[in-house]
Amino acid sequence: MRKSFIIASFVFLPLFVSASESPWTVMADAARGGVTSAITIDQSSVFSFSTSLLAFVAAGGSPDSAIVQSFIDKYYTNNQIGNLEYLNDDFWGILALRSAGVLASDAVIRDARSLIEKAQRPNGGWSWSPTYPVADTDDTAAAIMALLESGAARSDASIQKALGYIRSAQNIDGGFPNVPPATSSIESTAWVVSALWKAGEDPKTWSKSGKDPMTYLHAQEKSDGSFGGAVSTAYVVIALAGKSYPVRSYVPPVILEAPQQEEVPQQKIQLPPPEQPSPVVEKVIKKPVVQKVIKKIMKKAVKKPKKTSPPPSPKRRGKI
After folding, report:
1. CA distance 30 to 238
2. Closest Cα partner for 239 from 222, 216, 223?
3. Parallel, antiparallel, or unpaired: how do β-strands 80-81 and 76-77 relate?
4. Which has the closest alpha carbon to 190: 162, 228, 134, 161?
């Protein structure tokens, strides 16, 4: 069981919401810059935990380290997140943990990333399971976002190959099916658009027969402003807002420390050696006449102190 993770200190802000509130609608509100609803974190399953944690952070929550540790203790097993039979729990687990401030260098993130990279299909896509052979655009879009969040570069071969798979799946209406060939799906197209934003791509340039995925999504809007159900509408709102997942990431506060002053070693001052008299001067000094003069000078300089008489004793007056 994983006991620790790489993360900075947290401040917990308790947020509450009605049970009917969806994590996706909370993220959509945050993506469009609206007033976000507060949300509690649902720990009942790895997917509920992941999506509600993503929504919690999107709504402005600052995750408590105990919440993040609880996720890892519950769902990080066998060097992967969630169930061994699924891949999509690793996708969304990475996105949730990264949104909460867990570093890409953490072992949990690195292990899940390694599993995802190994499970990529020959055509560049991903499936919901490491053993299911058929790739789909939904899970490929989620995998792209998870890999980029875990430290992969946009230029990495795995990302470029995945983008190639997605492009090959695009329909002439500009949208994307879940599993090609099929009719375009609002949900799949919305997730693909979010993945394109994450990969640094402009969805408007992904045109086929003169139509791009943004054109397709706008065309699906209903008279009441929705794009189907509440969750489908939330996917589209996030995509049209130019956002990907995580919609928002928690940035731990940076604590600055005063720089330590380096101790400067004290240098010893070396005095130059006394100058030695030249041979000529030394020869002159040694002459008897010069020595005699030097002795007279030294006698005058060093005089004997004069003898001083002790002070007179005070006269005593009276008897003691």
Report:
1. 9
2. 216
3. antiparallel
4. 228
Note the pLDDT tens digit of each residue in 155-167. 999 999 999 999 9
Phi, psi of 95 (to 5 degrees): -60, -40
Mean pLDDT across the chain: 84
Nearest to 99 by CA among 16, 41, 33, 186: 41
Relative orientation angle of helices 23-31 and 46-58, to the nearest 10 degrees: 30
Q: Which residue shows structure tokens 């995509």?
A: 239
Peptide bond into 272 cis (omega under 30): no
Q: Please report whether residue 32 resides in a domain.
A: yes
Distance CA 212, CA 271 (A): 84
Strands (E), the chain: 76-77, 80-81
Q: Residues 6 or more apart from 125 whose CB is under 8 A from it?
A: 135, 136, 137, 139, 140, 162, 165, 166
CB 171 within 8 A of CB 208: yes
Q: Classify residue 52: in a domain, yes or no.
A: yes
Q: What total number of domains does the chain contain?
A: 1
pLDDT digit string, tens, across residues 205-256 = 999 999 999 999 999 999 999 999 999 999 999 999 999 999 999 988 766 6
Cα–Cα distances (Å) from 148 to 4, 42, 88, 144, 248, in that order, read 23, 25, 15, 6, 15
CATH number, residue 234? 1.50.10.20
Share of the chain above pLDDT 70, in %: 72
Rg (CA), the chain: 41
Assigned domain for 180 exists: yes
Helix axes 88-99, 46-58, angle to 10 degrees: 30
Q: Is 81 helix (H, G, I), strand (E, B) or coil?
A: strand
257 within a domain of the structure (yes/no):
no
Q: Which of 213, 123, 209 is nearest to 172 (CA)?
A: 209
Nearest to 88 by CA among 39, 123, 50: 50
What is the extent of the structural domain holding 215? 23-240
* Global pTM value: 0.75
Nearest partner of 195 among 252, 158, 244, 147, judged by Cα:
244
